[in-house]
Amino acid sequence: MSNADTMRRRDFLKSAALWACSPALAAPARPNIIFIAADDLGYAELGVQGCRDVPTPNIDSIATNGVRFTDGYVSCPVCSPTRAGWLMGRYQQRFGHEFNPGPAQQADPNFGLPLSEVTLANQLKAAGYVTGIVGKWHLGYRPEFHPQKRGFDEFFGFLGGAHPYLPTAGADPILRGTEPVEEREYLTDAFAREALAFIERHRQRPFFLYLSFNAVHAPLQATEKYLARFPKIQDQRRRTFAAMLSAMDDAVGRVLERLRQHKLEDNTLIVFISDNGGPTNNTSSRNDPLRGYKGQVLEGGIRVPFLMQWKARLPKGLVYREPVIALDIFPTVVAAAGASLPANPLDGVNLLPYLTGQSKGAPHQALYWRFGPQAAIRKGPWKMVRLADGQPQLYNLAEDIGESRDLASAQSAKLKELLQDWEAWNRQLAPPRWQQPARRAQRARQRKV
Ligand code: CA
User: Fold this and answer.
1) Is residue 79 among the annotated active site residues?
2) What is the rounded distance in angstroms from the CA atom of residue 416 to the CA atom of residue 384?
3) d(Cα 87, Cα 156) in Å, to the nearest integer?
4) Distance between CA atoms of 211 and 271, rounded to whole angstroms?
């Protein structure tokens, strides 16, 4: 053996011994994943998003310790379709999941994530992660659509689209697995408790927790503990909303604190997003400076608070301004976890290289929306939007974030280009597998006439 060989061998043995002994030099452990969804949280409802009357220091800390997306979108302006999109990484209209189902008693029997589709939980479970959901599901009422049939090992929450926060004997029970439980805590507190218990149970192995709050969706209900924080808010509805948001911020803070206690925070990828814009009049939530609200493909319905933290890998305090969409969560998480992608091509893009600076430019050439008769496309600063009963409008969001100056006539060539792009995308989509509840009721009435 030459001297050089001996040296190499000695170096190898030394580094192998260090590798084996020192946790600092061990192969990087796979990150835990916590995907936090807020419900109906408007663009302007966090401190880091400009909110002034409701402090949200814990949720804000995800942005200051990680990334805030200024132009973060969801793929639908209402709950269930957005959730279908982000758990699949694909535009949900590709598989007919275009509308909300309505309450369980009225829901179309087909309602649920098609069983042919692979969820993010399926992929992570296959990669050895323990997977759990705490909170709102809203992706199927029937037994075959239950979260534990869709890749989640554990479930604590409810199957529907909304739920009272105060203990009540409702038609949509709180379930642990498939068993109804009697929940006595304020629901947001209960979800925090269950999230902490999940982390405790599984802190020794990589875990995926989908923490899906129903806050701050209606009904407006809060406990005195949180209401007492806002004695100066005169409007009682706003005061209750503030209390609900404050409770969710506490819940997020408890999760972050527990990760820190177990020294898990650095290597946990945390995503925070809302499923659609604020319904404004309904709950007092705000989307400023955006126009429109929940249910519309104007910016106020689809552009949402979107934050991401992973201290071990992502920069701190980054404000990322290229358009991104909730569909990106799937491939981003899969890449972080070293899991494999499903056979279906995804619409989402792995954002990690864009956030670390490895990849330049925009992750998406364009983003698209279809919600019944409503249509929209965002391409660079340009946005075409067509509401239910109107002509296509054209806005330059770089100069006009509030969609107030329609350039459809002045920039007719640009409008034509965007309409053509949107039509090309639209031709790839499937017909809806069920109709909007209101539309179904209307059709039923017409049939009776
Ligand atoms: Ca929602």
Assistant:
1) yes
2) 10
3) 17
4) 10
Does residue 244 register a pLDDT over 90?
A: yes
SS3 69: strand
Residue 88 in this model has a pLDDT that exceeds 80: yes
Which protein residues have a CB closer than 5 Å to ligand 1 (ion)? 39-40, 79, 275-276
pLDDT digits (tens, 9 = 90+) for 271-320: 999 999 999 988 999 999 999 999 999 999 999 999 999 999 999 999 99
Ligand 1 mean position, distance from CA 219 (Å) = 12
Cα–Cα distance, 149 to 173 (Å, whole number): 19
Q: Which of 79, 97, 163, 202 is catalytic?
A: 79
Residue 11 Cα to ligand 1 midpoint, Å, equals 57
| pLDDT tier for residue 437 given thresholds of 50, 70 and 90 | confident
Task: Indicate if the pLDDT at residue 396 is higher than 90.
Answer: yes
pLDDT digit string, tens, across residues 187-219: 999 999 999 999 999 999 999 999 999 999 999
Q: What is the CA(281)–ligand 1 centre distance, in A?
A: 14
**Which pLDDT tens digit goes with each residue over 16-56?**
444 444 444 455 689 999 999 999 999 999 999 999 999 99
Distance CA 97, CA 162 (A): 18
138, 146, 217, 364: the catalytic one is 138
pTM, full prediction:
0.92
Instruction: Please give the distance, rounded to the nearest whole angstrom, from the Cα atom of residue 304 to the centre of ligand 1.
Output: 11
How many angstroms does the Cα of residue 40 sit away from the middle of ligand 1?
Answer: 4
C-alpha pair distances (Å), 421 with each of 143, 417, 426, 430, 432: 39, 6, 9, 17, 21
Per the annotation, the verdict on 21 as an active-site residue is no
Find all residues with CB under 8 Å of 71, minimum gap 6, and list them: 303, 321, 322, 323, 324, 397
> Which residue, among 282, 346, 299, has the nearest Cα to 123 in the 3D structure?
346
**Residue 438 exposed, middle or buried by CB count within 10 Å (0-12, 13-18, 19+):** exposed
Tokens coding 128: 């050895």
Q: What is the largest CA-CA distance in the chain?
A: 96
CA of 278 to the centre of ligand 1 (A): 8
